[in-house]
Amino acid sequence: MKNIILIQDIDFNKIRKKIKENPKKTIIFSSNNDELNRKIIEKENINILLLNQIQRKDRFKQRDSGLNQVLTKLIKKKNITIGINLDEIIETQGTKKKNILARIKQNIKLCNKHHIKMEFIALKEKNKRDIYDLKALGLILGMPTWMTSSLSSDKL
Fold it and tell me: What total of structural domains would you count in the chain?
């Protein structure tokens, strides 16, 4: 997986510089800042937006999943794939895990509505799973068959 680069930063100019330095690589961008995510989607060419769910706080009547109607339209226009952090699913327990899975299900519904691809991404080697496990998890979480058939197990 030498053709993949993960960018996790909070400074827009540093992120822009890293993207420009790696033009031929698959770029995975991850941040907990929703405004920075939107700015990167609008102004830069990335391949995958990895959404982390573990540090998000739900509002009173709404889940904060990091994705909304406006972002999904931008993502569809730029042909970006949404990444699901597999490490968070595997390593969390109890109520936190329930909330993470609920946010992911919400994102799957939004991505299905706008026909956006999704990928499971494991950052740690011990959390990697084979393609059949990923497809099964995707189906359980509500992914349609067109989305699960485009899953791959070679990301990071």
Answer: 1
